Amino acid sequence: MDTQTEQQRKLAETIGAVQLGQDALQKALAAHEQDIPRLSAEVRALNCDVETLAQPLLQLSRHTRQLHRRLNVQQAHPPAKKKVERTSVKPDGGDPMALSSQH
């Protein structure tokens, strides 16, 4: 074979290999294009799931903040303590050192 014929054969082989590669890429691209709507739907569904799960967490967070505020108010303004005084001998003969509460 002469050099020109050999170069033409190699060129034809190279073109064939490039066409096979191009076909494979087009098939892969078509498969990925079909995946896009399915994956988009899955992402939307997952976003809905996250929102559904986030609602109770947000409510819990709000409730926790409210409880903290109440606790802080109670700590800043504790309820008045009951006055306790000692009494003398009880009429029923009870212990003279017993304590009684007055409201």
Topology:
Elements: H1 3-76, E1 83-86, E2 99-102
Antiparallel strand pairs: 1-2
Keywords:
103 residues, mainly alpha, 2 strands, rod-shaped
Describe the structure.
This protein is mainly α. It has one domain. The protein is 72% helix and 8% strand. It contains 1 helix and 2 strands, in the order αββ.
Largest sheet: 2 strands, antiparallel
Radius of gyration equals 43 Å
Low-pLDDT sequence parts: none
Give average pLDDT, whole number.
85
Number of helices: 1
In short:
The chain is mainly α. It has one helix at residues 3-76; strands spanning 83-86, 99-102. Strands 1-2 form a two-stranded antiparallel ribbon.
